[in-house]
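Retro notes, item 3 of 5
We never archived the inputs for the 1-deoxymannojirimycin complex last cycle. Fixing that now. Sequence and ligand:
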Amino acid sequence: VSLQMMKHAWDNYKHYAWGLNELKPISKQGHSSNLFGNIQGATIVDALDTLYIMEMKEEFKEAKEWVEKNLDFNVNAEISVFEVNIRFVGGLLSAYYLSGEEVFRKKAVELGEKLLPAFNTPTGIPWALLNIKSGIGRNWPWASGGSSILAEFGTLHLEFVHLSHLSGNPVFAEKVMNIRKVLNRLDKPEGLYPNYLNPSSGQWGQHHVSIGGLGDSFYEYLLKAWLMSDKTDEDGKKMYYDAVQAIETHLIRKSSGGLTYIAEWKGGLLEHKMGHLTCFAGGMFALGADGAPSDKTGHHIELGAEIARTCHESYDRTRMKLGPEAFRFDGGVEAIATRQNEKYYILRPEVIETYMYMWRLTHDPKYRQWGWEAVEALEKHCRVDGGYSGIRDVYSNHESHDDVQQSFFLSETLKYLYLLFSEDDLLPFEHWVFNTEAHPLPVLRKDDGNKEENQK
Ligand code: DMJ
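Structure as it came back at the time:
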């Protein structure tokens, strides 16, 4: 089924928005997000590995030809360093490792080089935004006192380690190791990492902590850096398990109805709200269970299972059986969105991602059932003639479509669905680590960095 879904999403993108970043499936035209500046083709680059894995050979070939001829980084564009890294660098790296086609390696390294000026700050903590022509960087104007964002500068590690590996140029890995060093030197309130860090002063901004937006993939990359290093990156490992310990103590709570959730922490006060983005953490806890200190393995799996259950409830308690952007545990509700501007669903993957990890790590059939419910809901409410669209209010009787087919729907949501219903030996976890946009990167063996590259 996910293959049919991918075909529908891809064919319509190709028909109506080929070469542009994303598709507007209702108005049947291109959609450009300013996150990528005028770098084009986000959907193509994000989808390459999904096409490859699903054995959509014709489509993969067309996509590759587009990359060869048209993917151009010599543009005057201000881009989000994080978004371009996870989608474009990550997408190109995976396409290279899966297919062995040199063009993807070349383009990934070329793009990586364009991103390097982002690190020209007093601390080496990169800017959020970078003009890839002039090399001038800056931060989001809304971010606390000119800060960089934890989930942005903390989500470069996996890709940059691979860029050094593939180019022979150590500079990429040095940049991300320096981020680690800066973080390790800082005092952390209650052992937690605030979402904001000023790249000039090297001091934290506001003490807001989140395992959802602004924080999320920083934690994910600590764990995955350790796994991707064939478990040699002890620093990443320690930082991850220490962080989880602090998160458990200060952010994880159980509702009176028995649902475990991860709240947001604001200078010591809890906001009892959990984002759809935070739902990825179920999969993360389960993936990290194996390496958890002493007797904690079962506990981390259990934590993953509880987060998966809570996130499933957030879907099940809506009319459309698709989860809202954020749901609350206060004011008499549990796992329900109460604010109008938190009721949307934009084809995000995190809940399905967690089902996939839980399935692989426990083989409890309920995760496939829950995944299937999501497929039915997507088909019923998000599928339109011209592709797949997000929904403005998942509690409503009728769909109000947002008219965007996000590129991560093809790279993540559909890939994780496909993996959920595949055998465990397709991209096995011993050999592959998924970047935060679901692009698989091979584990770098300690004895031989190259031999495993083409493991499938
Ligand atoms: C994706 O770009 C990545 O999963 C990122 O980590 C978070 N946001 C979207 C999907 O929701």
